[in-house]
Amino acid sequence: MPAEQAETRLTQHDVLPIVLLRCTTCHGARIQRGGVDLRTPAAMKKGGKNGPALVAGDPDNSLMIQRIESNACPPRDQLLKYFVRRPGDAEVRILRKWIAEGAQEYEILPDVATTKPDPLVTDEDRQHWAFQPPRQSTEHSSIDGFLAEKLDAAGLAMAPEAGRDTLIRRAYIDLVGMPPSLTDWKKWHDSQHADWYEQMIDELLDSPRYGERWGRYWLDLAGYADSEGGVSADPLREVAWKYRDYVITSFNNDKPYDQFLIEQLAGDELVDVANEPVVTQEMVDNLIATGFLRMGIDQTGSRTMNFVPERLGVIDDAIHVLGSSVMGLTLECARCHSHKYDPIPQRDYYRFKAIFQGAFDEHDWLTFKNRKLQIATPEQRQRVAKVNPPLTAQIKKLDTQRKQAIADYQRELLRQHYPDQSAADREETIRALKVADNNRTLPQRILV
User: Fold this and answer.
1) Alpha-carbon dihedral 237, 243, 249, 253, rounded to 10 degrees
2) How many domains does the chain divide into?
3) N or C terminus: fewer CB in 10 A for the chain?
4) pLDDT tens-digit profile of 226-270?
5) What integer pLDDT is reported at residue 200 of this predicted model?
6) Does a structural domain hold residue 56?
7) Which residue segment(s) compose the domain that 397 sits in?
8) Peptide bond before 256: cis, by omega within 30 degrees of 0?
9) Angle of helix 378-417 relative to helix 423-433, nearest 10 degrees?
10) How far apart are CA 96 and CA 157, in angstroms?
């Protein structure tokens, strides 16, 4: 048979996307039911407690095929819990064909840098403005230099310096976002120091309001919000304010920009917090900084919006935030096709995505409720140990009062609507109301 007419043989690249999508929620990195890991062909052949999941050349005796075709996997009652769907008929045929052909694997060549010309990114592409390092201007102000040159050519000069009142107001609004108070205005208006303006600027830069004023621009770039922002799921982000405060404090402390970026992109990699004997505030701040990568819209907390397409949307948002805020590029365009204007091939988008695979794995996903890391400094633990017990006791007391008030209200409501109901049935009805719908006995369901 001519080569062009030969049937294409399948490899692991045809199969793994199906298995990752349908199976690795229960047989992946965190959960391996029956001791089975299905993320690689080698792991499939190794299998688990009941033997190999895959028998090369024999799909009928491969446990993974048997479990799928008998509808045992994924379990029907677990589909919504784990946000998976059953493999379709076409997907099962691909799995069967691959196993029947011997479960062939195609070697993946390492993706290493070489000196060979890249056909997708030319030397001209590499001169794109976003790839150029910033240059220090020799002018006191590049804008002043530009204006002075044009004004000189036209035989004109700069306007005289603004008056003191105007300079005071401009500085306050620009640096702290508010006009000066009457006391502040009078202080600088009446100052006799020759360097009064420099003193005022230094004082404003030392103000906590400076970080609040200028930190908001970075927070806007990061997509900061106090809720998840989804149309169908918009719960509060209970601890998002910690990232906000981290940004404000960084601006107020004049943190170097490179350190500011490193902490937000890899703060969890700067120190092995889990194995440190003492947790410091710096370690905590580094972990908080990584909230930068979690500020995109995330609807995966919803019971209907936590499938792979929605998870990929969260990843795309994170890439968009990083590309637009740090790199000056609209990377997300290359998710579906090579960028039409910026020199970003589609290949590089997915290379970029792979960098975040450890934190953003669409096939091994943690919803925001499960991403919390309990960590505290010794000082914070001491404060919790001191403050929490009386608060816990007060909450318990109030909760008891709340439950009693609800029971009294229910009892009175039942008495008004069902005056003939016996006291015993009334109390049993109240007990039934406290039980979740799916846990009620038949008599309780009848009463309710």
Assistant:
1) -170
2) 4
3) N
4) 988 877 778 888 899 999 999 999 999 999 999 999 999 999 999
5) 96
6) yes
7) 378-447
8) no
9) 140
10) 81
